[in-house]
Amino acid sequence: MFPPVLFILFLQLTVPASSLDFLFNSFTDTSAAANITLTNDARIQPPVIRLTNDSNQFSLGRAFYPSRIPFKPSNSTNVTTSFSTQFVFSVLPDIATSPGFGLAFVLSNTTSPPNALAGQYFGLFSSSTTSSPAPLLAIEFDTGRNPEFNDPDSNHVGIDLNNIESVITQTAGYYNATGTGNSANFTFVPLDMRNGQNIHAWIEFNGPENEINVTIAPAGMARPARVMLSYRNPVIANYCGTEMFVGFSASKTQWVEAQRVLAWSFSDVGVSRNINTTGLPVFRLENSGSSSLSPGAIAGIAVGCVVAFLIVVCLVYWFWWKKRKEMEEEDKIEEWEMEYWPHRYSYEELSVATKRFSNEELLGSGGFGKVYKATLANNLEVAVKCVNHDSKQGLREFMAEISSMGRLQHKNLVQMRGWCRKGNELMLVYDYMPNSSLNKWIFDKPKSLVNWEARKEFWPMWPRD
């Protein structure tokens, strides 16, 4: 592997007869269109190159520099050309879980490799078992896993020699250095190439040494000091023709995956010039809710969230106010009630008096409901009988019945003191009887039966159910 300084000197000492050096920081002006050859569905979509067409089910596209580069003399088996290139690309699926494809940097003796297929073949290769008939070398940035190609994962970089099955692969990522010099430590950081982020790639091709070095990092980050993928093998010369095109290729099937080239720098006379990554666009999912948002859209979403929050607060307050109003209406003594008797108690007053209708204050229960002992604010002890009010019966008519019961006066009947209504539940308030009711001492199998003399005494009791 050549260190960067030695690689620069090596390029300067091996300058081909016809040198090439160019830099596209974007693909906006007309000079970019004049200096890029596009095939099939590839097109310039300022400020980027789009390699495939979303509308076509099976789409492939290629973008090449229009001039061939001499790689080795005629009838020679030795590659004499070396080059340095760097570019920024973005791969973005329409659906994150759909199959991935990616793109490839290509060295080819033709801009239209014969029998090339779309889908996982990058628009370069004909099948997984047949080598391409033309000299073809590709560095694939693969965002899908195809087990039949021995792909290690769905996010890797590989080197392909006339065949879709890579001779070497490496999970996409970069080495983060801590420390300096010989004491530097390198930690591998995985890099997702399929989330739309801009990826900066560097490739050094050393022809005489038959070596290819690949490095990637997020755009805007300094180039990592350590190469991610290195391949050195004399067989590389077998896949280079006397003259080769350099460029990019990509393909897809029915699943939309936008493959974009945002900038490109190339040189066969030295290290390629650095790309200005500060002004490059950043893409997000276009059709499934993850598109890049303008400041106006963000402000609109923020305002919408605030308005929705205020609406929810207003609705909560309205329901609370309505409920409270209903409770106040239930506790409010209306004018027509004044003609009846007895006294009407508020629900809150009886709730406090019975300790929130706790079981500790429960005196008894039956088919009619439950009876609780209550202590009013004036320390008067009463009994509260809760009964289920038939909602079909008019309240005024029911009050008339309660009024009649309240006027009953008898020494053996418990005096009714008042009432309360909450929804369909009615509470009747009576005098409290510490000795319980008479029927308990006569009919409920008491331990000692009350004799007739005691029964003749004035014994307050509850009205029978």
From TrEMBL:
It comes from the Eukaryota. ATP binds at residue 385. The chain crosses the membrane at residues 297-320. It holds the Pfam family PK_Tyr_Ser-Thr. It is found in: Membrane. It is a single-pass type I membrane protein. Residues 357-465 form the Protein kinase domain. Its main location: membrane. In the N-terminal section; belongs to the leguminous lectin family. This is Protein kinase domain-containing protein. It comes from Rehmannia glutinosa (Chinese foxglove). The lineage of its organism: Eukaryota, Viridiplantae, Streptophyta, Embryophyta, Tracheophyta.
